[in-house]
Amino acid sequence: MFVGGWIIAAGLMPAACSGAAEIAVIVSSKSPVSSITPNQVADIFLARIATFPTGARAVPIDQPEGSPVRDEFYEKTARKSVTQLRAYWLNLIFTGKGEPPVVAADGEAVKRAVVNNPNAVGYIRTDLLDDSVKMLLLLP
Q1: Longest dimension (CA), the chain
Q2: Tell me: the pLDDT tens digits for 76-98?
Q3: What's the CA gap between 80 and 65, in Å, rounded?
Q4: What predicted TM-score, i.e. pTM, was given to this entire model?
Q5: What residues pair up with 134 in beta bridges, in sequence order?
Q6: Over the chain, what HEC string results?
Q7: 8 Å CB contact between 111 and 124
Q8: Beta-sheet pairing, 120-125 with 59-62
Q9: From the centroid of its chain, how far is CA 18?
């Protein structure tokens, strides 16, 4: 029984360690957008809507496929696994109903893209936050 507890605890440690930093949904510090819900974020990143709640055009900037922060972001906002997300985009692309967001190289590149475009929205680990961006939503 004691050994089983160790096996379970050891099995959970990698998941707990990989999600150490929280995820921040960000826009440029100059953006007029000041708040957003997780559902609105999911709708923007899944090409269901093309605007912020304010009516301004939204340009989602994604993290690379295979990135742990990307996987966690879509699980927390859209409730989609990697496999479900891939199938979702294949369907939209095949039917001509949508295209996935522009993909940046990493969190720093997402931040730079957001800073340089007042319509851009992205997500990064909270340890990358600085005064150049505004956090709209925190995903614990």
Answers
A1: 57
A2: 999 999 999 999 999 999 999 99
A3: 13
A4: 0.85
A5: 27
A6: CHHHHHHHHHHHHHHHHHCCCCEEEEEECCCCCCCCCHHHHHHHHCCCCCECCCCCECEEEECCCCCHHHHHHHHHHCCCCHHHHHHHHHHHHHHCCCCCCEECCCHHHHHHHHHHCCCEEEEEEHHHCCCCEEEEEEEC
A7: yes
A8: parallel
A9: 15
pLDDT at residue 21 above 60?
yes
Residues found in the chain:
140
d(CA 123, CA 41): 10
CA 105 vs. chain centroid, Å, equals: 14
Helix axes 38-45, 68-77, angle to 10 degrees: 120
Amino acid, single-letter form, for residue 24: A
- Residue appearing with tokens 């929205």: 121
Domains of the chain: 21-139 (3.40.190.10)
Which residue's entry shows tokens 């590149």?
A: 109
Q: Which residue in 5, 115, 22, 20 sits closest to 76, CA to CA?
A: 22
